[in-house]
Design brief:
Blueprint (H helix, E strand, L loop, with lengths): L22 H13 L4 H10 L2 H27 L1
Helix pairs in contact: 1-3
Length: 79
């Protein structure tokens, strides 16, 4: 005998339709999350709306900027 589980809020017909976040919006929530200015509830809601591919490219861009800045700092200190 199988029992049906109630639909989750994400797939519920009563759940409001929200548009997915753009890459720019995803990058801004990624940076805000990194420096710690987003509340956990806001971050959870934002990342539930973000597309996986946008998160990947935003994280890749952010990582590239951080590595580039670190290389510049090391070159400056190293003389």
């Amino acid at each position: 005998m199988t029992t049906q589980q109630p639909p989750t809020e994400k797939f519920s017909p009563e759940a409001p339709k929200r548009r997915p976040l753009s890459i720019r919006e995803t990058l801004s929530i990624l940076v805000a999350g990194h420096i710690g200015v987003r509340k956990a509830a806001q971050r959870k809601e934002d990342f539930s709306r973000a597309k996986g591919v946008n998160i990947f490219f935003a994280a890749l861009a952010y990582f590239s900027v951080i590595v580039f800045c670190l290389v510049l700092v090391v070159r400056y200190i190293g003389g």
